[in-house]
């Protein structure tokens, strides 16, 4: 499939041109790359009387960014924009820095820029970054050697930072929309959600692993904190028979030796029994048992007994 056609995933269509692509390496001699000296990530408790402050917000699926110009404790200029929900706060903060560099250069003024985004500032002074927005911001900054970028701690009562914070929150509600390409991290998130949904559908409708499904009904990437004993996977004749280790799944007591039989009915495991539930309440009982520490210890002891006495239960 060509990039122009995109990729169709169910009702979702992904187009190549909608996603941010890495740029070639930044071509500049290392001796001319002075941004490490002009971008500071150490907070200065005394910002100058004239400065630009940037900020960004990403509340409840919205995104926005802004900058304001403060001169002698008076706001003399502001800029805001709204971004798409899939744009990241990193993109928003970098865009705001790029915009205020361009604004200052258009006015022909030398001014310091203050941002509370450590990640954006580190991305700008890092020599090897392929992010196109970062590269554009670097290029703008390198063309104006008198400008300085600084980090400022958020929520510390600085006038310019508070004004920028209010502006970017306002921008998420009523700002002019600006299009930025979707970052790859959003694509990864979309594909991950699609994969998890498909996995969950297969798990819900499958006809195997139902004993485990009763304990772990939700598909997830995080490891479950259950031992194998807690999902009733152990030395039961029904499993031995399934994998052809035993010639039959019938135990010495004459009944099919599935896990529920072992923990509720088998005379060989009487000391470890739980009350046998009705068929419709089996899952509820098992969840109740697993929520009790003493019951879990009892299950572990049962599995150990079956392992040590396998010859008695064949």
Automatic annotation (TrEMBL):
Ranges where the RNase H type-1 domain occurs: 46-173
Highest rank taxon of the organism: Eukaryota
InterPro entries on file: RNaseH-like_sf, RNaseH_domain, RNaseH_sf
Gene3D superfamilies: Ribonuclease H-like superfamily/Ribonuclease H (3.30.420.10)
Pfam families, per the entry: RNase_H
GO MF terms held by the record: nucleic acid binding; RNA-DNA hybrid ribonuclease activity
Name by which UniProt lists this protein: RNase H type-1 domain-containing protein
Native organism taxonomy: Eukaryota, Metazoa, Ecdysozoa, Arthropoda, Chelicerata
């Amino acid at each position: 499939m060509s990039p122009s056609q995109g990729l169709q995933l169910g009702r979702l269509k992904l187009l190549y041109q909608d996603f941010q692509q890495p740029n070639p390496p930044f071509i500049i001699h290392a001796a001319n790359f002075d941004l490490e000296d002009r971008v500071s990530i150490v907070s200065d408790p005394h910002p100058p009387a004239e400065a630009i402050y940037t900020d960004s917000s990403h509340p409840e699926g919205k995104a926005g960014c802004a900058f304001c110009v403060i001169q002698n404790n008076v706001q003399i200029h502001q800029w805001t924009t709204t971004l798409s929900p899939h744009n990241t706060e990193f993109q928003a903060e970098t865009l705001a820095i790029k915009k205020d560099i361009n604004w200052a250069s258009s006015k022909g003024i030398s001014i310091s820029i203050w941002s509370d985004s450590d990640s954006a500032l580190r991305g700008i002074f890092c020599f090897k970054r392929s992010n196109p927005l970062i590269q554009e911001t670097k290029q703008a900054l390198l063309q104006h050697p008198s400008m300085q970028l600084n980090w400022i701690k958020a929520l510390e009562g600085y006038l310019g930072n508070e004004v920028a914070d209010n502006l970017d929150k306002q921008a998420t509600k009523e700002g002019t929309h600006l299009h930025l390409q979707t970052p790859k991290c959003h694509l990864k998130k979309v594909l991950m959600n699609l994969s998890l949904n498909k996995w969950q559908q297969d798990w819900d409708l499958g006809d195997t692993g139902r004993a485990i499904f009763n304990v772990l009904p939700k598909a997830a990437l995080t490891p479950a904190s259950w031992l194998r004993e807690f999902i009733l996977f152990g030395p039961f004749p029904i499993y031995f028979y399934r994998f052809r280790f035993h010639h039959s799944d019938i135990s010495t007591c004459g009944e099919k030796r599935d896990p529920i039989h072992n923990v509720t009915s088998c005379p060989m495991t009487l000391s470890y029994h739980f009350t046998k539930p009705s068929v419709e309440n089996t899952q509820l009982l098992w969840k109740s048992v697993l929520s009790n520490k003493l019951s879990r210890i009892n299950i572990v002891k049962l599995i150990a007994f079956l392992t040590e006495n396998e010859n008695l239960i064949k």
